[in-house]
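LOG
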Amino acid sequence: MSALKQFLIKRIEATGPITLATYMAECLMHPVYGYYQKERVFGTEGDFTTAPEVSQMFGEMMGLWLADRWIKMGRPDTLNLVELGPGRGTLMADLLRATSPVEEFMDAISVHFVETSTQLRAAQANSVPDARWHDTFAEVPEGPMLLVANEFFDALPIHQYEKRDGAWFERMVGADGDVLGFMLGPTGAQFALVADEMKDAPDGSILEVCPSALSITGEISDRLNQFGGAALLIDYGYRKSSHGDSFQALQKHKFVDPFDEPGAADLTAHVNFGMLKTAAIQKGTKVFGPTMQGMFLMAIGLGARAQVLAGAGDEAHQHKILADLKRLTAPDEMGNLFKVLALQAHGLDAPPGF
């Protein structure tokens, strides 16, 4: 039995079942045993692959989109370029390379990473040595901002609720000997975040809410409203609130039981973009999307960029570029599953891709 599993079982035996949100937080971010303290998380040798790891084209297109927003902002002399959950720093490194010819842009920006993992901070420092690190978004200095978050919100802890005999209960994590698993308990305060129309559902229905995602979206919106700028949120999820269980664990690119080896697998849930959009609108921020990742990337020029890269190499290189393009944009790959949401301060025109 792993050390984290022993820790969780002892905690549950002492204080009772814990929420799924607490379980996810411990499994992912425990300072010693948490998943993101693992040496290898991303890529073929890790447990999953993100879009920036698939191809340099993804980060390059993000850079051009953000540089366009900076120009439309009036080219401010100082700008916080922020990434939430930057992985190994691959996206930011590609982004900075693509925008390096925009001299005034490079002079204006200061790069800020929101990252709590010590292990990942070390990897990010190798990719982007001049970055500044923060444990929370609130620590990022005030000022005009451009922000990108790719596969950040899916790892935020969620609460789940299940309807039984006409009543809603919270899905808790309990222990039966050395076996962890779901059990039902009374709903906590976070159940108030569930829209009333979603509560009218048949027995057996499951609902999910992610309070931290809504809170962070609100913080981003407040910052944009006060200082100006734009944010681009990319993740897998659904456009509107719906019933269903999207909690999952991934290890070595395969789905596994999320309770077998706490801390050894990536735990995620699909992002409710409808709730993120509502949270931003309630703050008065301009919102665009969500739209499909494939449609967004092609609309901002990914196809043209792929043609340029493919033309600069041999047949094997061309095949790889086209395969990467398909992976990022095809409906049966990442193209439809992943959504893109843009948040902007008032005064900016509609952003490319929407």
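LOG (cont.) second protein
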Amino acid sequence: MNDVFVLDHVSVSYGATTALRDVSMAIPRGGITSLIGPSGCGKSTLLRTLNRLNDLIAGARLEGSVRFDGADIHAPDTDLVDLRRRVGMVFQKPNPFPKSVFDNVAYGPRLHGRTAMLDELVERSLVRAGLWEEVRDDLTKPATTLSGGQQQRLVIARCLAVEPEVILMDEPTASLDPVATATIEELTRDLSADYTIVLVTHDLRQAARISDRTAFFAAHAHDDDSRHGELVEYGPTEELFNEPSDERTRQYVMGDRG
């Protein structure tokens, strides 16, 4: 299996504060890779390095290298718009635009200059996100009138409409009820047949249920009360949960977090 991302000794700092230190890992193409660990361990920071969203944070600095499809994403000739199209993002809280359902899904394609066959593209994306049957009768309705779970599926449809290769998900079910969470989990598992998905989650049961590979990060504390994240263990999900090789992983997945 070829790797879609390769991180080589990646450290991320915000100003004088190191958030993530010396992470090296490869993320294979396809399936779901979960990132787990306590708050402050750098999971979301790592996720945002994969499409350079950290660039939007003042004082952010990266050391090491991140390669996507074999190319260094920090090379001077990197097209950030194209990178973020190919590596889409779904955030913790659903963030539909204050537009209609149709215009939310069509937004990305229009931004990239695609105007032909938009109706078909919007329908296909909504079908793929499992939302079409619920909204097909009125695509002009405001997206903000949808339920939280529907809004999150709409955001996923908006991501799919620009035809990404990778979907990054930062705790996509954290604000949803159990029924909506189950729907998003089933959808994510289904999408992983065609897309590489990297998922940050605090829900260990969720990681165990749906991911193929899991990376556990720990927050290393310093004497001055600051902390940085570090990768402790990474491998097939079943092995990491059932036969962890590091005692810190075992304590975390067993619920003894110190």
